[in-house]
# Entry
Amino acid sequence: MIGLKRGTVTLVPYQEKWSEDAEKIISLLKHLLGDTAIDIQHVGSTAVYLIHAKPIIDISVAVRDLNDILPHIEVLKQNDIIFRGEVIEGEFLFVMGNDEILVWYKKS
# Structure
């Protein structure tokens, strides 16, 4: 299971699939963003081996300047990565698949 209904919190046992899914997403982002992405990491509780976690995969992408990501919004959208804006100052939020997978872009 991946994702939660908005407004709910559930912890589930660690699943190997989380790491596999994160690697696939990281590979896709590297392909789509090229040199714009300085670093891409699987972060959050699903990245910690063997702990119970909310089944939401968090990916953090570092860029030199936050605005560097803006030209990529359309190609990301074409790949089901939806721009949600600057939810926290200095960070852009993108989501995949009905808010199931969070992708953070933040200044390095």
